[in-house]
Amino acid sequence: MTGLVTFDSRHVEPGSLYVALVGARVDGHTFAAQAMESGAVGVLAARPVGVPAIVVPDVSAAYGRLATFLVQRLPDLAVVGVTGSVGKTTTKDLIGQVLSKLGPTTAPPGNRNSEVGMPENVSRLTPDARFLVLEMGARHVGDIAYLTSVVRPQVGVVLNVGTAHLGEFGSREAIAVAKGELVEALAADGAAVLNSDDPLVAAMASRTAAKVVTFGRGPQAVVRAERITLDVVGRASFTLRTPQGKSAVTLRLHGEHLVPNALAAAAVALHFTDDVALVADALSGAEPVSDGRMQVAEAADGTTVINDAYNASPVSMIAALKALKTIAQDRRTVAVLGQMNELGETSAADHIEVGQAVAELGVDLLVSVGNDDAAQLGEIAAKAGITTVHAVDRDAAGSVLAERVRPGDVVLLKGSNGVGLMSLAPILLARG
Prior knowledge:
34% of the residues lie in helices and 22% in strands. By secondary structure, the protein is α/β, with parallel strands linked by helices.
């Protein structure tokens, strides 16, 4: 099999196998004919669908077994799994770009990291692939354990334990249990790459048989950054210090908060090579790959747009606000902040915390977007003297921006994906 295997009929291309999954709201079997019209060669289904199909008792289980087979047919393939509450996609993209200097690498853009998304990414493997880099996400304890049973990684990266999906897990400790399933799956000859700056991640060292390699900014980290500086648009330079030596790195990515992601990528690469200079050069040449992750672009009228709107948590929201101020320098700042979803009982407090950060950083204009928690975020900032407008949804926010954004402003778009702020980026970039 060489074609794409996908559960999303919109992704079907000539030669694809379409997987007809039954979801909570949509039955994929109803799109079987459409998938064939788009070029699929067949359908993996639970019942006859009137087109060529492989009928199985459990489509999801068969989908997973197919992913397992695709990996097993490449016995020399090294698999890297990445998890964490924040930064998985950016780190996966960095790892992919660094490992590509060592051999053919598959690290598909985007964040298909669930039991239905990960097999699709596996199907993108090329026959000559030496490395496969996969995100592994979790909404429940056991999710990552299942993913690692489908595709067992040789190297597992845990970035952090935050508050994303806290409403589903109930506590950060429960999130740590779920994320740590990745390192539990590693063999003794593998490597667990752990963030030593996060105590809940560092504690996972006791849960793995693999070699533990820590990364971070603290002196206890095995792979660490020293002498971090930022240029005028927020791109970090630092000395990469490792057991194999040290080398200078200058990132093309914007934001000091991405330094740990780069360190994680370096730690992964150094499992496969001792060439620190090569790793540092690859990091220095790495570009943004996936949409909505600290993408910085400029409109014809001089407006700078920071599109970090794929998703949001309190930690990533505050980090993006700091990057906004660094990139803007003495220019006017506009923060368009959507609601943060799936935070559970801490949602109100988390939005208040972000509102306080907006006030402390001195953003010139805040546009809060979404539900009551987002409105409260704006109210907290407004009480501190920040000019604030609340928009009930993305379209209302677009209208505010059309009226209030001036040429030369620096605009940050940040919020949970469901708010849809990513779609405002091309509108802003079309200005002038």
